[in-house]
């Protein structure tokens, strides 16, 4: 392994890309701890110690920002506006025919969709920055904290905070694109990976200090087993054989080759978990906005708070059902069996034993519906691990080995290693992985 890493750094071009990526990551992590203008950094730290926010509504966004949200730093919005914008643009392909046409146009169409995603990212960043500043001013961001996060509430300071936070979102988006162009791996995915990984030492230290070293070792063993399970499932796929008939093009015979259509067990990735988590954050948001001046809440808000917390059985059941439903929904809009069947028929391809055209599309729909169910159950199981850990060992909701964190980290890690390995094999017979 060490010899493989040494070979990577002995390759000048690859070494330059890796160092460039590490440099962008360093800048990103430094920005996490630079407070936004108008924010009292000392009061923020005291509020973090005195408040129970780390187990509340904002932890999900804080996870993707690498802790920058609750630091109220210049990078407080993190990568979430870009993730949301990308998902919205992808979903709009189903609703707006023009977006689907751009998707089919190839590189030129993708460039236009990317530009739309950038504009939407800035708009969402502006909206979320305004919301964050309002929460910080009102004290809702840190419930129970008596220290003012924004001491100066003048209009100039508030506008400067909103503009700075929005600019931070744009800078993060630019850094991610720079990694994609000049570094190694997908830039946005790498930044998300770093944001999540930065919370691992704190989470594991909390478990060791509060639960003891026996529990700590047990969590490590269970974590390794979960990582092995995630790697196994993420690499699993159903290969549907495809045969291309021979045909004459001029004086040449083309076709006659055999290939396959890879259908992954988890085709939806981590998107259904993000959708489900976002939907179940709404009840908590409703309860927080319905707290009376004397600190009491209506009966319906109390019921929501008690039944839609992470440790309640009802929350886990609804969470599981939402993940399964969103998995089927997302797979249905990202994989079109009819389009795949038409493309195969156009180029003379067919599945052995299945007629080309509509029978092929029906067969692909059949296979897809059967393989999506175990993928959805797997996603629900991994997503419930932090909630189960919260009940068993009183861990926080940012339990390191489960949910969106482990799915994203393993997926990004596997993809990045594949890209490094491919670049190594272009220059040497041996890649990063033997």
UniProtKB/TrEMBL annotation:
The chain crosses the membrane at residues 18-36, 68-95, 116-135, 155-176, 188-207, 213-233, 254-275, 314-335, 376-393, 399-417. GO terms for biological process: intracellular protein transmembrane transport; protein targeting; protein transport by the Sec complex. GO terms for cellular component: plasma membrane. Keywords: Cell membrane, Membrane, Protein transport, Translocation, Transmembrane, Transmembrane helix, Transport. Its main location: membrane. It is a multi-pass membrane protein. The central subunit of the protein translocation channel SecYEG. Consists of two halves formed by TMs 1-5 and 6-10. These two domains form a lateral gate at the front which open onto the bilayer between TMs 2 and 7, and are clamped together by SecE at the back. The channel is closed by both a pore ring composed of hydrophobic SecY resides and a short helix (helix 2A) on the extracellular side of the membrane which forms a plug. The plug probably moves laterally to allow the channel to open. The ring and the pore may move independently. Component of the Sec protein translocase complex. Heterotrimer consisting of SecY, SecE and SecG subunits. The heterotrimers can form oligomers, although 1 heterotrimer is thought to be able to translocate proteins. Interacts with the ribosome. Interacts with SecDF, and other proteins may be involved. Interacts with SecA. Belongs to the SecY/SEC61-alpha family. This is Protein translocase subunit SecY. It comes from Paeniglutamicibacter cryotolerans. The gene is secY.
